[in-house]
C-alpha cells in the first residue's frame, strides 16, 4: 500500500465521520459560505504578480515535522505581506498536521488573498466544507480520483463559486482527466505514491501538454529562484512552494528574500 493509498483510506473514514456530525445545511449556514470568493486565476494573471502560492505546512509524510512553532496567522500574513499571489493551507490532520481551524484562521487573517484548501478530496461533502471554511480554491488529485470523480467534484466546486486546481504527475493522469470545470492544472514534481524525486522535470515535461486555456502551476521541489524563471519560460504562471519557506524560522521573510532574487 502506497502512502497515497493510506491517506485515501483514512480520508474515507474522516468524511464519513464528518457527515455524521455536521450536515451540509449546517455547512451552508457557516460564516464564510456566502462570502464572495477571491480568484486565484486573476491573482496569478495580474500584472506584476509573483505567481507564488505559499503554503502553510507543519509536517509531511516524507519530511516529518517541518515547522510546528508558528501560528497559521503569523505564517500566512507574512506570506501575503511579502507578495504571495495566493496561499495554500493544509487541512489534513493525520499526515500533514493541518485542520479546518487553520483554514478558518488564515481566511480571517487574509480576507482578500486567494486561499487553496490543500487536502485529499474524494467526496462532494468536502467541497461544501471548503466553501464553509473560507477556501477560494479546491485541490483535486488525479492520482486519487477516477475521471468521473474529477468531473463531478470540479463541477460541484464551480456550482459553489470555487476555482479548481487539478494536480497531475504525468501525462497519463493528464490525458484521462476531464478538464471542462478545471481552472488550473498543477504538476506535482514529487510522486505522491512514494513522495520521491527532487527536481522539476515533471513540470518541464508536461509544459506543452497542458491546454493553453488553463493556467499552469508547478508544485513541489522548487527551492531556487532561478527555477521560477526556468518554469516561466515554458509557460508556468503559478508556483506552489511550502517546505522551502516553512523550514525557516520566519517563512514570510524567507519568501520576501526569494522574490527579490527572481
Compact overview of the structure:
Keywords: Amino-acid biosynthesis, Aromatic amino acid biosynthesis, Decarboxylase, Lyase, Tryptophan biosynthesis. Its EC number is 4.1.1.48. Helices cover 41% and strands 16% of the residues.
Secondary structure elements and pairings:
Elements: H1 3-21, H2 24-28, H3 40-45, E1 52-56, E2 59-60, E3 64-65, H4 72-82, E4 86-90, H5 100-109, E5 115-118, H6 124-133, E6 137-141, H7 147-159, E7 163-168, H8 171-175, E8 184-188, H9 201-206, E9 215-219, H10 225-232, E10 238-241, H11 243-246, H12 251-260
Parallel strand pairs: 1-4, 1-10, 4-5, 5-6, 6-7, 7-8, 8-9, 9-10
Antiparallel strand pairs: 2-3
Helix pairs in contact: 4-5, 4-12
Protein name: indole-3-glycerol-phosphate synthase
Pfam families: IGPS
Catalytic activity: 1-(2-carboxyphenylamino)-1-deoxy-D-ribulose 5-phosphate + H(+) = (1S,2R)-1-C-(indol-3-yl)glycerol 3-phosphate + CO2 + H2O
Provide an overview of this structure.
- With 262 residues, the chain is α/β, with parallel strands linked by helices.
- Helix content is 41%, strand content 16%.
- The protein has a single domain (3-260), classed as Aldolase class I (TIM Barrel), CATH 3.20.20.
- The chain has helices spanning 3-21, 24-28, 40-45, 72-82, 100-109, 124-133, 147-159, 171-175, 201-206, 225-232, 243-246, 251-260; strands at residues 52-56, 59-60, 64-65, 86-90, 115-118, 137-141, 163-168, 184-188, 215-219, 238-241.
- Helix 4 (72-82) crosses helix 5 (100-109) and helix 4 (72-82) packs parallel to helix 12.
- The protein is globular, with a radius of gyration of 17 Å.
- The model has no long low-confidence stretch (mean pLDDT 95).
